[in-house]
Amino acid sequence: MSKTGVKIFAPASVANLACGYDILGLALEKPGDDIIAHFTDTKGLKITKITGSKKQLPKEVEKNTAGFAALKMLEHLGESERGIALEIHKKMPFGSGLGSSAASAVGGVMAINELLGRPLTKREMLPFAVLGEQVADGSYHADNVAPSLLGGIIFIRDNATLDVHRIPNPKGLQIVCVYPHIKILTKDARDILSDQTTLKKTITQTGNLGGLIVGMYNADLDLISRSLNDVIIEPQRAKLIPGFYDVKDAAMNQGAMGCSISGAGPTIFAICPNTLIAENAAAAMQSAFHNNKIKSDIFISPINQNGSYLY
Fold this sequence. Notes:
This protein has 311 residues and is an alpha+beta fold. It folds into two domains: 6-167 and 306-310, Ribosomal Protein S5, domain 2 (2-Layer Sandwich); 174-302, Alpha-Beta Plaits (2-Layer Sandwich), CATH 3.30.70.890. It has ten helices and eleven strands. The protein has helices at residues 65-77, 100-115, 122-137, 145-150, 186-191, 199-218, 221-227, 234-237, 244-253, 275-291, and strands at residues 6-15, 24-39, 45-51, 84-89, 153-158, 163-167, 174-180, 258-261, 268-272, 296-302, 309-310. Strands 1, 2, 3, 4, 5, 6 and 11 form a seven-stranded mixed sheet that branches. Strands 8-9-7-10 form a four-stranded antiparallel sheet. The longest helix has 20 residues, at 199-218. The model has no long low-confidence stretch (mean pLDDT 95).
């Protein structure tokens, strides 16, 4: 048990991976959030500092993703009266589609767990982190939280029971994320979706999902590339991102294996077979946004295999 406090890094994540809406996600090595926790002399959990959020995040524990996740875990452990202070240092774009709220929730439970001497495994912490993210978007799903916490590529067979499974990936894959300076609320990106689709599209999407998983297991880059195609969600959300298809075409023309919307957007991600293609794709994607008069930030990262960790 730490007497001075702990500092946790919780990474960003890319959810959906084109054909796996709400059931696939992967962790990035950067960017991410830092969460610091230490004991205090006063009873209860408090959030004492938030940086990097431009004052958009509440300090009230029950309304904050990190705070609520940490509180629920403390209640589970019978430690809700323990005096603990949390600091949240946002070091990734807010509302970017890179799992910002999920990273904070993951950091919150990780920090508490480390402070209390690791009473829970990462898998045992997962339900509390998911509850924390639910504060932000009202939906109970683990496609950002699970990879941010556990690392790697995660397949969620069932969100309600958190039946999650790790999928291996070929070595050398690089993830390009280009974040345009536009705002899309997760709630709006969900509300725009139709709850109906055709049998033909369902069959195509299911085939792509299966192909992507098999391709990852077998390190079959061609199968992965053929499978990174979303025929249901992407066509509905593309209109929320000006120049989306210009950006996607730019990535694919540089040799990206696939390109789609990261989570609810507006970040667009591309999976690339190596760093050279990733760098070229990133530059081309940013240029395409520039041509649409939109500024953007680039993040290039391998898949983070470890998830969140103690500094």
